[in-house]
Structures are given as C-alpha cells and as structure tokens.
Amino acid sequence: MKEGINAALILEGGAMRGIFTAGVLDVLMEHNCYLDYVVGVSAGSCNAADYVSRQIGRSRDCIAVSDKSIRYVHGDLLHMIRGKAFDLDRLCGDFAYRYYPFDFETYFASEIRAEYVVTNADTGKPEYLNEKKDPKRLMNIIAASCSMPLINELRPLDGGEYSDGGITDSVPILHAMRKGYRKNVVVLTRPKNYRKERNRAAEALYRTKYRKYPNLVKALCTRHIAYNRTLDLIDKWEDEGRIFVIRPEEPVVGRTEQDTEKLLAFYRSGIDRMEERYGELERYLSDGGTDVIS
Prior knowledge:
By secondary structure, the chain is α/β, with parallel strands linked by helices. 45% of the residues lie in helices and 14% in strands.
C-alpha cells in the first residue's frame, strides 16, 4: 500500500493498553501504510508520535520496559504523593532523549498531519495541538495528553493548565470527520461492547482535588456519558462499513500493568489482529467512501 493515503487514523488511549495499538501500528509501518492524518489521545499520543517518526518497535519498548530501574509506573505511596505514580517527566524526557531516543528529525520532516488531544482545565474543553519545530514543546504536549486525573498533576502548557485528553474526547472520530476525512481508521484498546460506568467515589475526589476548576470537574463527572455515546456511534458506523475499527479481544491488560510477558503478549495480539485484517483495511481504504456527518 502506498503512503500518503487521504484518511485519518484515530488512536484511543488506555495507558499500558497502548501496547496493543503499538502492535497494530508496527504492522502498518512495516507495510509502509502511512495515512495523511493521525490524532492520538493519552497513550495514543505516544503511539501517534512514533508512527509519524516511523520508529517501529519504539512504542513497544517504551511500554514493556524490562529494566525496572528506569520504569515510569510506580505503585508505592511515596510516588503517588509526589504525583509520580505515572512519571511523565521520565516518559517524555529521559525516554525521548536517552533510553529510547525519539527521532525528532524524521518527525518534523514528515508530511503527516498529527494532533494530540489535551483537556484545558479552565474551560473543560478538548484542544487539538501539535508542534512541528520545538522538541521540548512537542513532548510537553504529549505529556499533557497523557496526564491522568488524580494520578498526575495538571501540566503547565502555553500559559495554561492541562490534563488528559481522554477526559473530553477519548476517541476523536468526530473531530477527524469535521476536518473532512471520509475514511477513518479507529484503533481502540478495549473489546467490543465495553462501556464506562459511573464512578461516584471518583467524582467525590474530582470535586475535592479540582475545586478550582469547575469546568474540569463537570467534564470528569460526565466523561462516561460522552465516551459511551461515542462508542455507540462507532459501533453503528462500523456496522454500516463507514469506518474501519480494530480492537482487542479479551483478555486485555490493566492500565498500570507491569508484567513484561503480559504486555508483550498484548502487543503480539495487536500485531496478529492487524495482520489478519490488513487485506480488509486495504479494500476499505481503496473503495469510495460516504460522508458520515456534514
């Protein structure tokens, strides 16, 4: 398949579940399948960046970290108190520059249009950002997109405060369609029929921790509603053949999974699913499409 295909690639987050997406994208890159536009959310932002920089295997290596001394996911109380239970400074700092160097040169030279979803804490609205020149700002955007509520502190960026893009647009399929893309490839990290449930205990914590950000609290407390509506649309459009969706089957790993063997098994399931359906994807991308929304 030729690169530069006029289609959008939409990547859901899910923390360590992003290793499934890594397997999917590694297959696409091996086939030189590069779509014109990619939008990532949370862990999907890391996947998206490695897709644009054409670094096969990098997302896998950054998630399934065998060297415990450099891991960025911690379950102890001290790291939690410091807001480092999920250490984004290490992931978007040391990993990008030292342990698993990110290819900024290739990224900035790419013609692929990339965006990363972040949530503005003041407005409680999603923003879709990118950076094509400044390595530090690019990594700051990705860190903001990955900044999980309660676990991480709000991330300063461009004079504002930001949090996880998944709070306000977990699967930005509508955003891609509004940009004019008629062909949309969606990579999810949960099995079909998964839906979020309301979590009243978490809502109480949100209201306490983010009391200075009422719009963010509102977005957090209604996140499950917006997410489930989006998945309902995705299922509908998938059944109609209007979008191409690839997702894992059971079982999936947890978002803080650290067992390397389990993570690599989930990565291989992403490879297997994409290889099984690659011919189907080719046909979908080559056939004429129909607008889903105006």
